[in-house]
Amino acid sequence: MTRPLTVIKVGGSLLDWADLPHQLVALLAHPTIAPTRPLVIAGGGAMVDVIRHLDAIHRFGEATAHALALQTLDLTARLLARIGRSARLRVVESLRQAADRWAAGEVPVLAPRRELGRLERRSGTPLPQSWNLTSDSIAAQLSVAAGASTLVLLKSADLPPSANRQDAARLALIDPLFPTISQPLQRVLYANLRRPGPLVFQNI
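^ that's the sequence the OP posted. Answer follows.
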């Protein structure tokens, strides 16, 4: 029987955290994650913020800024795989390649640019080219396309108890497009990975 797929979005705000390698090992052993096939996606963090800042100055245009931001996500995927090498993270560039990593007992980290291009060509519906779209919504889009049972959002900030996706968007903890793009996903879990103590997932 095929194990369910869990997409794990590691927020870019976590990339500069010295404890991240240890926390990734613990996360992958968590009872919520361990019985599934994990697929990791890295956020853009400070690197995307650089593009956002330069776009505000030089007015690249939405299409150019979007393309540059996607290239950045490929870079942060490779950085995260290096950071998480003790957790056996390995970079892949397609969902098809992820199966090989699972078979090898490794955890795939998706560099998403090429896979997103394939999905857009297949569906004929490109993602919005806007700063309202972040890697959270990209992770949601990929989760839907891959048939994931769960999307996990790992952040550096707490979410109020009983908050839903719309609440999280209003608090700018996720992007404003996420509630719509993630609508087909029945299970989205949110966790502040930096919070001391046992990892707590909130279903939003």
